[in-house]
Amino acid sequence: MNNKLTKIYFDPYLFFSICLLSILGLFFLYSASNADLSIILRQSAYVLLGLLIMISVSQPDPDLFRRTSFLFLVFAVLLLGITFLFGPEINGAQRWIRLGPVSFQSSELLKLALPIFLANFLGDKKLPIQAREVSITLSIIFLAFFLVARQPDLGTGLIVALSGLSVLFLSGLSWSFIGGAFVLLVISSPLIWNVLLEPFQRQRIATLFNPESDPFGAGWNIMQSKIAIGSGGIFGKGFGNGSQTQLNFLPETKTDFIFSVIGEEFGFIGILLLLSIYFFILMRCLYLALTARDRFCRLVIGGLSLTFAANLIINLCMVVGLLPVVGMPLPFISKGGSSLMSLFFAFGIITSMATHKKFLPQ
Amino acid sequence: MIFEERQVEKNNFSSRAIFIFLFIGLSFLVVLNQVFLLQVSSYSDYELAALNNKTYSVPIQPLRGEIFDRNGHGIVRNIKTFDLITKPSSIDDVESFLQLIKPVIHLSESEATQYLEKFKEKAFVNKELVLKKNLSSEEIARFGVRRFAFKDAFIGERYRRMSDHPKIFSHVLGYTSRTGDRDGLLLNMPRSHWQDTELVYANGLIQGVTGLEQTYNQMLSGTYGKTVYEINSRGQLGKVLEVEPAVPGEDIYTHLDISAQMSAAKAFGSRKGGVVAIDLESGGINVLFSAPSYSINKLANGMTAAEFQEIITNPSKPFFNRALQGRYPPASTIKPAIAMFGLTKKLVRWEEEIDDPGFFMLPENGRIYRGWNKGGHKNVNLKKALLVSSNTYFFKLAYQSDMQELASYLASFGFGAKVCGDCFDEDGAFLPTPDWKYNNLNIPWFTGDTVNIGVGQGYMVATPMQLANYASILANKGRAVTPSIVQLALSDGVIQNNDQVLLDNKDWINLHDALTGVIESDLGTARSIRDLKNFKVAGKSGTAELVSLDSKEAYQDLRGSELLRDHSIIIAFGPMPNPKYAVSVVIENGESGGAVAGPVAIEVLKSLLNEQ
Fold it and tell me: What's the predicted TM-score (pTM) here?
């Protein structure tokens, strides 16, 4: 430990693959934005800032995160409250908060705070987790979900819930409980469909199964996305040559549907490469989780990387037409500061958890 | 936490983490599979869908074929006019643009309003917009010298369909009009694209509505081309990706003869009726004229509502094509056919004479059928009967005939049916039979009815077209060629059927001799036109009675009302003895056949024979 002050904590595999993704992201964004340099410059600044955040966040010992996890959660919830009270309404939703010149999506913070808090909360509980802890955990998760979902932002709400549930699952929730919950979910699904979902959400799910039924309405996005990807073929149409992208048939090319841009311009080969990088990052996270120094670190790495995975998979399934359209960016590629910052933050924490080893007497 | 417990916890975590990451791996495979389905399995479908998305095809209008007469003179042509066309997308301030261009091109208030109405939309989608149609040469010149000031406007050529003889060819040519039937224009293109058609005609998408323009619409139309533009999701046109030029329609060469048609029109003056002239060799229709007429140029290129109203409310019905649709009793012009029937059935012989006291009495009931000449023509053989147009002779001959047989014999001359191969909306007129009368009027056919047919009166009616066709068969000694306006056959099988109306050659010579005598001999009923020409003509005149009367005195009372006066009819062919053309003329309410219709027929023949 004599070089403690000079040591820089970082995981080369994660670091370089994330760098690679971010650089590719800028490249794709250039095409998706119809070669808008100002967007690229701003996004580049975000990426640099993000890398800086990631490295900085990697340095403190995991104990710091453990000790501050409750405060962090309270802070995130407070921000949500502020958003609710003062946030501007954009497209019928209050998701953003302004702090001086910066505005960001407050729910992003909750995606980080909730799993860390739960990892700490469940990290010292005996196995199997007792009903009392389970119910406390579920209440917190539900509260977090509710706060986000009512913005309304169902997509992020589900991600927040999944980030909490994944920690609960990894920490040793009994299988019988999981089975019971699953049965309950199936039984209550008609209730969810009819009562909890907004009409536009039901419409989105309906169009998923039959997008051609309404090609100019709700089905438009899915249709155009599938056309973009499908018409890319094996090798793609080439950088900047995607007609669906460049002629604006594809919606939200810079954000939610940037994967379709990649599919159109780089084809199956491009997608295969991109997915390989994501897969590599996830495998690396799994390895780091399995070899982390303690239960808290394991749970945090597991929870955060699963949140990342859920985010990624939901976006992928959405743009290829397997899931209804929900607002969900493609990690490290889509335009946008908030989600990028929270991703770098998350991977900074993961790196911290993975690189700080304790040599305790066993 | 003790070590074992930690180890249990760690194992538990590991198995769960691996389990859930397996699930993630599975999700990756599902996504990859879906991407594979889209990009590899269904690639061609999506490639096509993307292509359909990004391209916008606009039809290019072809130029219609022109129509020429038999001497290669244009009857209807595409006349170039000039429109001022703008590109709204590159005009920043439309108001000042209009202010700037107003002194140059004389813009009316309504033209400016119309332009402004469409300006925004066209500017957004990057399409062209016509500012002013049909520029005068002065406006063109003024714009020409200032065109550098108007980079976003240019003069475009637009055609109009015009005839140099708009009034005399109106019925036969027909007219074109804006079409609503875009499906008929072939080319599988969505309907909405038609409104963006790159136009060649000032009137937009046009198609033949009547006459030759309609009959030969397909040939004249040509084939639409297309320009394929790149288009974005907002409907804005981008660069041109592909141009498939339009194929102009075929020109049509007709048998029509402009100078003969003009002669017919001139000879007609302000009278009503129809003329048809046929080339005996080819069956080609050289003249097809109906009076009164109207201007096709106006009809095709914009006519005021008042002008149109004037035409359709005119009691003379200018739109009515009398040459093809007018139904007139053939009157005495039918007599040669009756004579031929008599010869064929051996009911009469050339030398056989009968006494013509000026009337025929039906033996059954003593009913009297009068001739036109009081006192009759005394001793009459077949030749004399034709020369002097003895009604008594033909009453008697018809009386001896079986109507069923006579009707089918007359049908072989084309009566009662359409005879022209490529005429627009020809009428078949009517040839009665005993069955028809019984079934439709619930009265049996009387011998008296047949007697009336013998002089071309009664139920039988024919069109000038049918009469000309009949005259051409007489002139051709029985050879029947389907008449047609256009030189190439619409479909070979239809046009070139050479039916034969059979008669001994000796009889044909006698018949031609008798019909020549109608005009050329001192006895002939149409001798008044003998000196109008210096070649011999055969023919038969007729006076179609609109009202059946017993005496001339009664007719004198009737003459007061012009519309009840007799129609004047003639069929003629010449020059004899080797005729080249046959002609029929009907002049409504013209009275005496030979003297009134005759000169028109002679003028047409002279013109066709260049004997002016």
Answer: 0.73
